[in-house]
Amino acid sequence: MTQDAIAAGVEALLGKGGVGEGAGAACRALPADAEQTAALVAWARAARLPLAVGHGATIALAMGSERTLSGAVRLDLARLARVRFYEPQDLTIGLEAGLTAGAIAAELARAQQCLPLDVAGGDAARLGAILAAHRSGPLRHYYGTVRDFTIGIEFVTAAGKLTHGGGRVVKNVAGYDLMRLMIGAQGTLGVITAANFKVFPRPAETETWGWGLAGWEQAEALRGALLRHPGRPLALELCGPPLRAYLRFGGGAGARARWRRELAALSRHAGSEAEAVADEGAFWREYGAAASGAQRWRLVAPAGRGVAALRALEGFAAAQGRALRWRGRLGLGVFELELAPELEGRPALDWREAARRVHPEARLMRDDEPIETVLDGSGADLALMRKLRAAVGA
């Protein structure tokens, strides 16, 4: 099928406002709602056209091969940007996948509530991408990941069927937990079109304090002291080089005063005096920005072995003559890494092995490729979902 014919087919389904330039694909499809998304997926499958979800001119498939998108339809959910429902008194909200983190924050701020979507990309990050990639940021230390506060999900299967899991209430235990299955699947099991969430009261005031650390021993000591602390910080971050730790806490004036009184004792573990961050908003916006030209990875290690894994990777990078930067959740063992120049081939395998030598469950994953998937009509995706249904008795 020619590109003109593909674009004409998409326009017939979605109308003139539903088709645009393809950014490497035959055309870009912009469905207006979940039903149009399902119709588009079903049409592409029947026509045996690849349907690309994500950004960029190539995609990294699950088996590691690459495919160009010149004959594909690129699916863009930007028009799915509505608040389905919002019940502040019940702390629940239903959101479509095209909404940005900034738009969601503005909607919830009117009722002094929040959804902790503090991910890389900031206010411009779209909800569908956050869910598909299971992204999280510093507030994960307190709130958990987006998977922990999702209570319902809507998605389109590779066969073009609109499907739901969970519901609109927080206490919902009916059926198989499709939220946990779909969140983090990177679109390989379907296209997420909307989700329902439990929301949280917005902290009235927060403060951020930082320490310069003399070495890895101080990082471990500070981590242990804060995890034993009776208070619960909003965020506990480690970044470098130079090696620094940041503590963010919130609450009323009394709660914040108690934290400040205890900073001196915590500073003895860090080996330096705590310093207040003057402009919190600017600091956290800049904190999550990725370095230009760096190869990006994610490190996930058992919480107690995260610092040791980072230390091993720093040594590996130094031996290779590479510059390594890191930032992440000190209390959880989850870090984002930036490495330059890039690693390929055997050195990349050795890099992964350096983390596994610290702990067999420590994993390094490439994070610099766009999150994309292609539903190409081959039947492999549908076969996987059928096997899943059989396994859970659905």
Could you please describe the fold and organization of this structure?
The chain folds into four domains: 3-75, Uridine Diphospho-n-acetylenolpyruvylglucosamine Reductase, domain 2; 83-201, Uridine Diphospho-n-acetylenolpyruvylglucosamine Reductase, domain 3, CATH 3.30.465.10; 206-234 and 246-286, no CATH class; 295-366, 2-Layer Sandwich (Alpha-Beta Plaits), CATH 3.30.70. The chain is 33% helix and 25% strand. The protein is built from twelve helices and 22 strands. With 394 residues, it is of the alpha+beta class. The protein has helices spanning 3-14, 34-46, 101-109, 127-133, 140-143, 178-182, 216-228, 253-270, 280-287, 306-319, 345-358, 380-392, and strands spanning 19-20, 27-29, 51-53, 58-60, 66-68, 73-75, 83-87, 92-96, 113-114, 150-156, 162-166, 191-198, 200-201, 206-212, 235-240, 244-250, 275-276, 295-300, 323-329, 334-340, 363-366, 373-375. It starts with a helix and ends with a helix. A hairpin with a 4-residue loop joins strand 19 (323-329) and strand 20 (334-340). The longest helix is centred in the middle third of the chain and has 18 residues, at 253-270. The strands form five sheets. It has an eight-stranded antiparallel sheet. Strands 1-2-6-3-22 form a five-stranded mixed sheet. It has a five-stranded antiparallel sheet with strand order 7-8-12-10-11.
